[in-house]
């Protein structure tokens, strides 16, 4: 398969980054939380995860040219007041690499750490290959001890051709209802897909993978839907109006991050809706990996007008109003419910 080598490197990279994130989540200290200039929480784990993914990909694929579009940059970390944070990230990255133990490497210096973060500075686009990384997607979920994902995709000529989602807190069995919050099942799911080859899932700690499919349901009354946990990230009133019009009976399952795409790809729920508040612009790293994981599992991802997502335009995704995800059978009815709800809302 054309992207096998890249897929193996991507799985290795996100699995390592997931271990680093778990260590930080377990020992989450107030001092690990910083604020970027846009006021979103960013932790040593976001930076550390980006360093590890970047490091592993470049090491495993050393013969290929490397371009990556990633969420974090080193600007704030280069400021004097961040020297303790930079020291902690460097220590965390080196400890994670050392406890992995699979190969001997020289410890990374603080300068190496900054430069691995900055190797995610590409703008992507419609030509050549570009990795697309969200080192921690769902930072708010991460800080709350909830769901988050390390999301890594690859673009080739503007199309997403592979995607890997590590979801360290997602049970490997279904999260079809809000009971997942108290699930005692084994947690840690890894989803991966490459174009034309389907989507697979395995435990984050095992190698046995199995093919997954979106649900085949045609009946909205049986369909459950996923949406953001955070009300600031999606209009919960709009999604509940759409769900009502469609005939969905069960309450929404609220999960942080692209773990929603993973859960949908294995049929835990049938619909994912995301309608950010006015003025928010979507980024490619928030959807690239999730999008291919769902489409290769038989699902459909479009904007509110039914257009496929276009990842070839740089860092941003320009979508009409919001993003909707479901299976092929339910999509026509979902699009109709979305259209009617948006009209109703705009006439209020
Ligand atoms: N105001 C906002 N509206 C919508 N999405 C946001 C907003 N602020 C941050 N995000 C991003 O939304 C995604 C999480 O959405 P959710 O968990 O609700 O599905 C994350 O990528 C998060 O960024 P980040 O990667 O920094 O956590
Ligand atoms: Mg962020
Ligand atoms: Mg994100
Ligand atoms: Mg992030």
General description of the model:
48% of the residues are buried. This protein is an alpha+beta fold and 348 residues long. It has 9 helices and 16 strands. It folds into 2 domains: 4-212, Fructose-1,6-Bisphosphatase, Chain A, domain 1 (2-Layer Sandwich); 220-346, D-Maltodextrin-Binding Protein, domain 2. The longest helix has 23 residues, at 4-26. The protein has helices spanning 4-26, 44-60, 83-100, 110-118, 139-144, 236-246, 259-265, 288-295, 331-346, and strands spanning 33-35, 41-43, 68-70, 129-137, 149-156, 159-171, 187-194, 199-203, 210-212, 225-227, 253-254, 271-274, 282-283, 299-303, 316-317, 323-327. Bound molecules: adenosine-2'-5'-diphosphate and magnesium ion (3 copies).
What are the defining features of this structure?
single chain; 348 residues; alpha+beta; Fructose-1,6-Bisphosphatase, Chain A, domain 1; D-Maltodextrin-Binding Protein, domain 2; 2 domains; seven-stranded mixed sheet; five-stranded mixed sheet; 16 strands; globular; binds adenosine-2'-5'-diphosphate
Order of helices and strands: HEEHEHHEHEEEEEEHEHEEHEEEH
Strand order of the largest sheet: 3-4-5-6-7-8-9
CATH class call of the largest domain: Alpha Beta
Total number of beta strands: 16
Count of distinct structural domains: 2
The second-level CATH architecture of the largest domain is 2-Layer Sandwich
Determine the CATH superfamily of the largest domain.
Fructose-1,6-Bisphosphatase, subunit A, domain 1
Note poorly predicted spans.
Answer: none
Bin the helical content: 25-40%
Stated plainly, the CATH topology of the largest domain is called Fructose-1,6-Bisphosphatase, Chain A, domain 1
EC number: 3.1.3.7
Enzyme class: hydrolase
Keywords: Hydrolase, Magnesium, Metal-binding, Multifunctional enzyme
Organism: Lithospermum erythrorhizon
